[in-house]
Amino acid sequence: MKKNLLITLLLLVLLGLISISCTGCLSWLFPEPNNPPVVTSASITTATVGLSYTYDVNATDPDGDTLTYSLTISPTGMTINSSTGLISWTPISAQIGDNNVTVEVSDGKLTDTQTFTITVGSEATDPTGGSEVTTSRRAVMWELFVGPACNRCASIMGDVITLRKEYGYDELVILEEYGWDYGDYTGWGIADVISRYIDYSYYIGSNEGGFPAAYFNGVNQFVYYGDRGYTNYKAAIEAEIDKPFIVSITAGYSVSGRTVTINGNITNVSADALNNLVVEAMVYENDVYSEKWEKNVDHVVRDIITYKESGQTIDSLSAEESYEFSLTSSNLSKVHDMSNIHVVVYVQLPNSPTKEIIQALYIE
Asked: What is the CATH number of domain 38-121?
């Protein structure tokens, strides 16, 4: 009995000495527990025949293990990048209706799965788009720079909707511009927004930046995020509406697949020549679900067609003179539903002290 006790004590001392001198040597005896990965992204559940469907599956692993992605259930033609989790698919007419998908994420030992159903709709009539419309008064273009993970941004959405209803689309055009993705909230940011935000911030002073940043007709009016709210937004809108109506825009657009083509003309309706104008457009999407705010968001800008891309610059436009333009947007891979897109065309003075936007037109 004493002999067995002595042997046991010696073994314990020996193991203690080994553990002190060789940290980790006993890990094979006492392994760290492995935690499973967790899928964090919300699935995209609608698609259209003939149009590219993409969904970037995001997952995290508490242990920092390398993750691999695979499809255990999927419709014919669907693929997934095993390293990034990006799902790609172009549905065909035979796949109209519900299509079941199961994604598996593995850390090499444990897994997590996400199961969802994609409802495929029939191919839209081609081309589709917005009927030609014309501005009949001065409109205010409200650019709202926000972030998908910005807590205080959610607090102003009620004011945005109230003002949109109060003024209507012929007087107030609202554009929510996301320049950066945040953590798990991906698929929102576009590069042109970053450039625009930095450009505007330079004019007002970088210390005044921050989300939500509200600009009206370029940098003519600005509402600092600390002053956000209905009263200050309305005051900025009223200050711009009272300015003269000097440019008229007539435009419509067509859609083919994920390409939007905008055609129209602008007319100088003032008594004086206008110099150094550019014609640009933004394509935005409504009803985009925000995982952060747990609700649908409107006016989400998906592409900015800048004059540097299109070459639509006007050195001088005489009184009553018109100028025809054509703009194309093909950077719409992040759009969830092409039937929910809308177009805004605007005329800007990029070299003016406030980068003034002198007219904007919303096309349904």
From this structure: 2.60.40.10
